[in-house]
Design goal:
The structure holds two protein chains of two kinds. Chain A is mostly helical. Chain A is built from three helices and two strands. Helices cover 63% and strands 8% of the residues of chain A. Chain A has a two-stranded antiparallel sheet. Residues 1-5 of chain A have low confidence and may be disordered. Chain B is an alpha/beta fold. A five-stranded mixed barrel of chain B has the order 1-2-3-5-4. A five-stranded parallel β-sheet of chain B has the order 7-6-8-9-10, with helices on both faces. Chain B is rod-shaped. The chains are: A mainly alpha, B alpha/beta. Strand 1 (65-67) of chain A pairs parallel with strand 7 (166-171) of chain B.
Chain lengths: 76, 402
């Protein structure tokens, strides 16, 4: 449940926030005194963050929309 | 008196002379609206100046073209400086332009400076109000004309950098009387759609063309907008009030798109770099732990009873070897010594003397016979010579004085 919450929280973050979280994770991994278990936990977390980040780049090519007088959009 | 009759040429020449000698007509500035403007092949410019009631034809010769630093168009208000002269062939007078300046430019600059000062004093340019431009956007609002280079450039650059960004264009009027209102409406409409960033701008043009971006309502709308706005008006050298109040100024619409839209390929590269780095770090950690484990295993090995036993055994074997070694050495030494003694003894052996013709006699008790007083007649003696033993009986023993 808590993990799910954390996941949702990540989903709400901007790409920028996620990237900085990944950087933190890498810094943790770089620490000399990290335990093997923790390093796996951090690695898993980092990979999940990257996955979310990839998903956040909504990789669908967009058509330019044009806003008409009624506040509706049409294709340009 | 007869009325004097002049030829056409004469009269035109006369009038021309009158013009020539008139100081006002020789250096005059005339204000009016441009019409019938023709740029001739020969580089002369022919046009008409007019106001509400009247017109005057004008010409600017190619040789004076340096006096004009903009493109004259129909309807422009200009001030023409030059002289008025008569064109004798047609009997027409014309304004011969030496310099042409745009009427109202000075006024616009004054307005610009005044508004800039006013807004600056109100703190609207203050960096503390500038919103940061988000680095990774999904939707980009654009307030500009739907036709023209600006929107094309923005679309091209955005699509090249990141085709996944949604552009929403508010097709605004960007010049003319209603432009400012149209731009303000565009900003507000796009704000309602919660775009991530907005580009407000247009391509290059004259000061008047860009004027909407110098109007207070546009400045206010940009200032009030909750969405970060990048201004992108005209060229590098054009600076408008909108540029000062915007959260970020782009020198051109293209540059605006570059500032607003991140390169998706670069982000993908970064993500895969991060992935590789994490894998590398994890692997390093694993190796580190593995090495420590191996090290510890070795240490435990040293401390095990088996190892102790092996070590003791080794020590015993070594000691044994040492013992045998030293024993042998001793033995050799003694043997050597013995040999020496044998040699020495050999040198002292009485038997050698026998070889030289001497003999050695002993009694029956094996004692050497060396004193006549210690023998008795009838006693047996053994005499050793070089090649054997002679047994004899004593017949007589007497002392001999020497």
């Amino acid at each position: 449940m808590s993990q799910e919450l954390a996941q949702n929280k990540t989903e709400d973050c901007s790409i920028e926030d996620i990237l900085s979280q990944v950087e933190d994770t890498i810094a943790n991994l770089e620490a000399e005194d990290i335990s093997l278990e923790d390093s796996f936990v951090q690695y898993k977390k980092g990979m999940e963050l990257l996955k979310v980040c990839n998903e956040k780049i909504d990789a669908i090519e967009k058509k330019v929309l044009i806003l008409n007088g009624e506040g509706e959009t049409d294709e340009f | 008196m007869m009325e004097r009759i002049y030829s056409v040429t004469q009269i035109n020449t006369y009038v021309k002379n009158m013009f020539t000698y008139d100081p006002v007509l020789q250096a005059v500035s005339v204000k009016g609206e441009v019409s019938n403007c023709t740029y001739h092949r020969s580089n002369h410019i022919y046009f008409t100046l007019k106001d509400g009631k009247s017109t005057i034809s004008c010409v600017m010769f190619a040789g004076n073209r340096r006096g004009l630093n903009f493109e004259m168009k129909e309807g422009m208000q200009v001030v023409v400086k030059g002289n008025i002269d008569v064109f004798e062939r047609d009997g027409k007078y014309q304004l011969y332009a030496r310099t042409i300046t745009r009427e109202g430019i000075g006024e616009l600059y004054e307005q610009f400076e005044a508004l800039k000062k006013d807004l600056e004093e109100r703190g609207m340019f203050d960096p503390c109000y500038k919103q940061p431009i988000p680095k990774y956007i999904k939707t980009l609002g654009v307030v500009t004309a739907p036709t023209g280079a600006a929107i094309r450039d923005i679309i091209n650059i955005t699509t090249r950098r990141n085709p996944y960004v949604q552009i929403i264009l508010y097709p605004a009027l960007v010049q003319g009387e209603n432009a400012s209102k149209s731009i303000v409406k565009g900003i507000r409409e796009l704000e309602k759609l919660h775009v991530d960033v907005m580009i407000v701008g247009r391509g290059g043009g004259s000061l008047e063309d860009l004027w909407a971006f110098n109007e207070e309502i546009v400045a206010q709308a940009i200032f009030d907008c909750s969405v970060p706005i990048i201004s992108a008006v005209g060229h590098e050298t054009d600076t408008t009030i909108a540029d000062y109040v915007a959260d970020l100024r782009a020198p051109t619409p293209s540059a605006g798109a570059e500032l607003a839209v991140y390169e998706v390929d670069r982000l993908y590269d970064q993500l895969s770099d991060y992935e590789k780095k994490m894998q590398m770090l994890c692997l390093r950690k694993c190796n580190e732990v593995k090495m420590r484990a191996e090290h510890l295993q070795k240490r435990v090995g040293y401390l095990s009873p088996m190892h102790q036993l092996r070590t003791k055994r080794n020590t015993v074997a070594q000691l044994e070897e040492k013992l045998i070694g030293s024993m042998q050495r001793n033995l050799m030494e003694k043997r050597h010594l013995l040999q020496v003694q044998i040699e020495r003894l050999k040198g002292l052996s009485p038997l050698d003397k026998l070889n030289q013709g001497f003999s050695f006699t002993e009694n029956e008790q094996g004692k050497p016979v060396v004193d006549v007083h210690r023998v008795q007649v009838g006693q047996r003696m053994k005499t050793y010579v070089k090649n054997g033993v002679i047994t004899s009986v004593i017949e007589k023993a007497e002392e001999v004085g020497r």
